[in-house]
Amino acid sequence: MESKKKWIFNIIFLLLIFAATLYGVFHGKDMGRIIEIIKTVNPFWLIPGVICVIIFIWGESIIIHYLMHSLGIKVKKWTCFLFSSVGFFFSCITPSASGGQPAQVYYMKKEDIPIPISTMVLLIITIIYKMVLVLLGIALVIFGQGFIHRYLSDAIFWFYLGMGLNVVCVAIMVVFAFHPNFAKSIMIKGHILLERIHILKHRKSRAKKLVQSMDQYRGAAVYLQENKKVLIVVFLITMVQRFALFAATWFVYLAFGLKGTSAFTVILLQGSIAVAVDMLPLPGGMGISEKIFLDIFLPVFGSMLLLPGMVLSRGLGYYTELILSAIFTIVANFTIGRKKKSVVEKC
């Protein structure tokens, strides 16, 4: 019942944010004119933009496959792609992308992957995923003050807020990933506290399972600490993955036949938006992403093409990702764990 209520809340929240975004962006604008401008783009330049989105989803599946195999768990690449799609779909539709990892853990469990291992793998992915943004933000602050003053002045508050939230988030996750004994202590004390205040009923079996789970978690953490090469490989793949998505906006720029701004600048601007909105409690950064785009991309697209450019950029970077991941989530729902289920039924 609680799960159903949560889903109803998430759906209503998503629809409200979507409606507010549409109103805020298009209120008072000539929709007919916007559509006419969009019709003039070269559609062939949008194809590599879609490919960038696919690379983004596919990139995480490569990382999942690599980490699982490094931990001795055999899983097919196609199954890992479905895991990745499930994560991105639920991240797109839940506040702060909070639904992605729990959904992935659920589907990984259906493939008999232990929850502590799947949790550890996804934690490492999240840390590196956010660390790329943190390093990008730090690099801009140290070496790109000219860039910040020229392009980000109207969104400077959101940029630094996003930076601060990402730094705090990464710091907390690093403690849990690389100090498993400390994490175990916190989890056990938290469990005791929840029992004392009667949120959870006292059960020795639950406490025993928690200790066993954290021991498995510790084993995975120790393995990754002792295999720094694994983390380096994950970091490099994540760099390609994240910047592939940022590059989708560059192909939108080319689709309009525009010249004069480098791919590097466009990618950095899109990366700056990601830094700003990644930790905000909005599905897919909806609403604030559009606002920041309109604030910082004016010198790139110009006043006439700014709104059509934003529509196509967000259409690729968020809505195409949402649609593709939704399709493969449906596939995952009908395929993951089905073979094992059929074997059990035959027995």
Structure description:
This protein is mostly helical and 347 residues long. Helices cover 82% and strands 0% of the residues. It is built from 15 helices and no strands. Helix 2 (31-39) crosses helix 14 (298-335), helix 3 (46-70) crosses helix 6 and helix 8 (156-178) packs across helix 12 (263-277). It is globular, with a radius of gyration of 22 Å. The two termini are 32 Å apart. Mean pLDDT is 82; it is low at 342-347. Its EC number is 2.3.2.3. It is a multi-pass membrane protein. It comes from Coprococcus ammoniilyticus.
Question: What are the salient characteristics of this protein?
Answer:
347 residues, mainly alpha, 82% helix, 0% strand, globular, lipid metabolism, cell membrane, transmembrane, transmembrane helix
Overall strand count: 0
Q: Mind telling me the C-alpha Rg?
A: 22 Å
Largest beta-sheet characterization: none
- Structural class, from secondary structure content? mainly alpha
Low-confidence stretches: 342-347
Catalytic activity: L-lysyl-tRNA(Lys) + a 1,2-diacyl-sn-glycero-3-phospho-(1'-sn-glycerol) = a 1,2-diacyl-sn-glycero-3-phospho-1'-(3'-O-L-lysyl)-sn-glycerol + tRNA(Lys)
EC number: 2.3.2.3
Enzyme class: transferase
Protein name: Phosphatidylglycerol lysyltransferase
